[in-house]
Specification:
The protein is an alpha/beta fold and 435 residues long. It folds into 3 domains: 2-123, Rossmann fold (3-Layer(aba) Sandwich), CATH 3.40.50.12160; 135-369, tm_1862 like domain (pyruvate-formate lyase- activating enzyme, Alpha-Beta Horseshoe), CATH 3.80.30; 375-433, OB fold (Dihydrolipoamide Acetyltransferase, E2P) (Beta Barrel), CATH 2.40.50. Helix content is 34%, strand content 21%. It has helices at residues 11-26, 50-69, 79-84, 87-91, 107-115, 163-167, 175-187, 209-217, 237-245, 262-268, 274-282, 306-319, 346-369, and strands spanning 2-7, 30-31, 40-45, 73-78, 97-99, 121-123, 146-149, 151-152, 171-172, 192-196, 224-228, 252-254, 292-299, 323-328, 375-380, 391-395, 400-404, 416-424, 429-433. It has a 6-stranded parallel sheet, sandwiched between helices. Helix 8 (209-217) runs parallel beside helix 9 (237-245) and helix 12 runs parallel beside helix 13 (346-369). The termini are far apart. The mean pLDDT is 97. It binds 5'-deoxyadenosine (5AD) and iron/sulfur cluster.
Length: 435
Amino acid sequence: MKFHIETWGCQMNDHDSEKLSGLLVQEGHEPVASVAEADLVLLNTCSIREKAVHKVYSELGRLREEKEQRPLLIGVVGCLAQQEKESLFRRAPQVDFVLGTMAVKQLPKLVEEALAGRKRLIDTQEYPDNHLFPPEVTQRLPMAKALVTIIEGCDHACTYCVVPSTRGPERHRPFADVLAEIRGLVGRDFREVELLGQNVNSYAGGCTFAELLNRISEIDGLEWIRFTTSHPMNFTRELAHVLVTNPKVAPFLHLPIQSGSDRILRRMGRQYTAEEYLERLEYLGEGRKGIRLSTDFIVGFPQETDEDFEDTLRILDKAAFDASFSFVYSPRPGTPALRYQDDIPASMKSERLSRLQARQTELTLQSHRRMIGSIVQARIESHGPTESGHWLARTGQWQNVHLAVGAGILPPFGERVAVKITDAGPHFLRAELVL
Ligand code: 5AD
Ligand code: SF4
């Protein structure tokens, strides 16, 4: 059978798709690049905001039409599957099976039953060993870095967030398993890994997250370790020290703040004040200058006043974030924030979002411009030049680089090279290859 997987959402979903693909390949099924060629389509879904859910349902509408023309199996997996469970069949009767985020290894069983003609199959149980997936099965996407799960689930309880219910409580992979997987990846020529978890820095699989980073960094041949994502309350002095002193830990920290207003942070259940967040950043000490800092914001949280929003704009400048991702608050099913009335008009939410993003664009541009003239390391992430003739690369600080290379030079995919920054925009840097 030929299968195609469509993935929405975060890196955790990208990596789950690599695992799901591996399970199907192991059963003799063949991955194909488009829905048109496929006998089975898996939608690996996200439900973090309502917009993500709309995208899934509109794709399901398109697939229903396709299914009216020819035999087609449709499976829904991921966070929306976990959230909606059986109710997905009511809204989308064309779906053959629903598989939850903590039942990944049950995929072959569901597919086999669906192929035998059984309808409306579902498994959204929490299998306690879901996080112990055999790495040799994973079918990796053609990327220059490898994704590695270290922790699944989340024990925080932010009032706006579906993740604790869609991904369950924290489960930690033993550090020996993580090290063995990464040694295997380096043996297959990966030079960079990204450690994944809803909250990587609460890692406790036999050592702390900071210790895990140090142990991984001892693996010969590995060049950069990245990680995502982190909660400020679990950002320790020990981790800050490793980040600024261990050269194999890429100099980039994504530390979501969500708001600059203490009143809103309290209602979000974030467990810190804006001042306490800034104190955590001070753990980086002098090393802060070498670390690129990014964050997430939610604007228009229920009862966010102009004053609260001004606090958010102020923190943007105070923390001097090099980049941020910002979103309009989206009420999510089953979350505690539903008890607050979503009372901010849509026009005000989008106006606040635009103001925040405009200021961030200025800050990002300034931060990028400071790099002009410097020489940094970047990894080649394209197999050839784009139409405009440059190659795509990524710095240790997670910036996109449009790279000019001399005529006749073919930098190998996945190689780390030295580049000289020649120009900067808010979304990417221009650079020349240094030979
Ligand atoms: N509405 C808007 N944004 C949200 N996020 C999480 N839940 C919501 C929601 N209900 C944002 C947060 C988080 C990022 C991954 O998504 O900023 O850090
Ligand atoms: Fe979306 Fe969160 Fe699920 Fe990732 S974990 S797919 S961001 S809801």
